[in-house]
Design a protein that fits this description.
3 strands; three-stranded antiparallel β-sheet
């Protein structure tokens, strides 16, 4: 794909408010196929208890870094709820992946799931401002993951714009 075609693909409007509280979701079949693969990967990570994994730490950040006792109590109280809300959002995404029109609840679930996926990818890729500006060399083995990270960012931006009514 040429740079111009890639830019056009990335900038194409994928979600628009319809006016009745619902949103037109204009995703190409290739996009839907890709997005179908992501919930299971995120679900596996959410259901793990590997607290040494930086991506898991990013999804369940510490509230009390300097107080192990309070942190353990916080994780005991909040981790399950955070996990359950994220899993519920993934379920809504899976239920609505083939829909052409989604309601606000579904679109908000998409936003949450995509945000979580970006957190994981960004952590795995060690995304920095420099990486945003410079990108990765074409032969870098992380290139496809970085392109997915950027694509999900475009989706997130468009979802936020649709929900806020801001298409400026």
């Amino acid at each position: 794909m040429s740079d111009a075609a890639a830019f056009e693909f990335m900038m194409r409007r994928r979600v628009e408010p319809i006016g009745d509280g619902s949103y037109k979701l204009d995703l190409a079949e290739e996009e839907r196929a890709l997005l179908r693969t992501l919930p299971n990967q995120l679900r596996d990570l959410l259901e793990t208890d590997d607290r040494s994994d930086p991506a898991v730490q990013r999804l369940f950040p510490a509230a009390y870094r300097d107080d192990e006792e309070r942190e353990a109590e916080y994780q005991q109280l909040m981790r399950g709820d955070l996990r359950d809300r994220r899993l519920a959002a993934l379920a809504l995404v899976e239920e609505s992946i083939d829909l052409k029109v989604v309601n606000e609840e579904q679109l908000v679930a998409w936003m949450g799931a995509i945000n979580d996926l970006r957190l994981v990818l960004g952590t795995r890729l060690d995304v920095t401002e420099d990486l945003y500006e410079d990108g990765l060399p074409a032969d870098d083995p992380r290139q496809s993951a970085f392109e997915l990270f950027m694509y999900l960012g475009v989706l997130m931006e468009q979802f936020v714009e649709a929900l806020s009514g801001d298409f400026g």
